[in-house]
Amino acid sequence: MSASKDGARRKELGIIMNGVTGRMGANQHLVRSILAIRKQGGVRLSDGELIWPELLLVGRNERKLRALAQEHGLERWSTDLDASLASPAHQVYFDAQATRERAPALRAAISAGKHVYCEKPVAEDLATALELARLAFAAGVKNGVVQDKLFLPGLLKLRRLREAGFFGRIIAVRGEFGYWVFEGDWQPSQRPSWNYRKEDGGGIILDMLCHWRYVLDQIVAPVRAVSALGVTHIPERVDEAGRPFRCTGRRRCLRHVRTRGWHRRPDQLLLGSPGSPRRPVNPSDRRYRGQRRRRAPRLLGPAPRQHATARLES
User: CA–CA separation, 25 vs 64, rounded Å?
Assistant: First the structure.
């Protein structure tokens, strides 16, 4: 316990952050969340006390960890997860690793008595997720998973309107979500290659349907049943090292160009629209200036969009 500049009591909360050298862990969770809290002086409670997050960065790449810590003026980092979990000064464990790495680390954190908070999905299958939830309950530790979409300003307003009865009786919902991801050949992809391989914990269904599910649960109505169908339309990709790979059979690779949704029937939500042609790249667009197009003919041809169908029963 220490005092802040304005004389308020300041209590340090030790947080072990694992996986922060990745895109999401570094940008969203470290820089835009925890470091932003530190920049504003901590979190002030109703009794005037300040909660100050004290960080211990953990990862597998020593070079990346050291560079990240130096960039943001952080002193503590480690490549030894077990030693980090043994630290009595850090009460919370946060996990933003690749999905397939998460379950073993969460088991170790719970066993060490740490409160846990992690990225979604918690695990690659339901049985493992339930096991982790039961372990956390039995250990008496606080636990949670990222559901950041619930706190977006637009969705908060939508929820208030629904609770106020503005829409009346809701019988159908349309949701849209999408982002453009390059294949990695003539232009680097914005997402790591593991994110597309099912055996590495990837795939758009596992990665993103959990977001849409809790949004529907919390903003529209509780979802009682879900069924989904995923289709891979562009199986060829290039990884970070420039190696081409093809997702066929078990090596499933999901390309998500754009997702649309509409109700065919009151109980069926179609997430995606297959069959639409892709737009050709516009050479005058400033995002593409100076970039060499090695495989332009394939990019200009029509290609169906990846889609997922989710059946909702309420």
Answer: 13
**Residue ranges of the domains in the chain?**
2-146, 150-311
The mean pLDDT value of the chain amounts to 79
Q: Which of 123, 124, 120, 253 is nearest to 197 (CA)?
A: 253
Fold designation for 2-146? Rossmann fold (3.40.50)
What is the pLDDT confidence band of residue 63, given thresholds at 50, 70 and 90?
very high
In this prediction, residues 294-310 reach a mean pLDDT of 40
Q: Which residue type sits at 86?
A: A
Structural contact between residues 77 and 16, judged by C-beta atoms closer than 8 angstroms: no
- Angle (CA) 227-156-95 rounded to 5° is 65
> Angle at CA 160, nearest 5°, toward 157 and 162?
110
Distance CA 104, CA 111 (A): 11
- Using an 8 Å Cβ cutoff, are 128 and 99 in contact? no
Architecture category of domain 150-311 in CATH: 2-Layer Sandwich (3.30)
Q: Which of 13, 2, 15, 22 is nearest to 52 (CA)?
A: 13
Whether 251 contacts 197, CB under 8 Å:
yes
Q: How far apart are CA 11 and CA 50, in angstroms?
A: 6
**Rounded (to 5) percent helix, strand, coil in the chain:** 35, 20, 45
* Contact (CB, 8 A) for 220 and 170: yes
Q: What predicted TM-score, i.e. pTM, was given to this entire model? A: 0.72
Judge contact between 43 and 51, C-beta under 8 A.
Answer: yes
Structure tokens at 62: 């020593």
Place of tokens 């969770």: 29
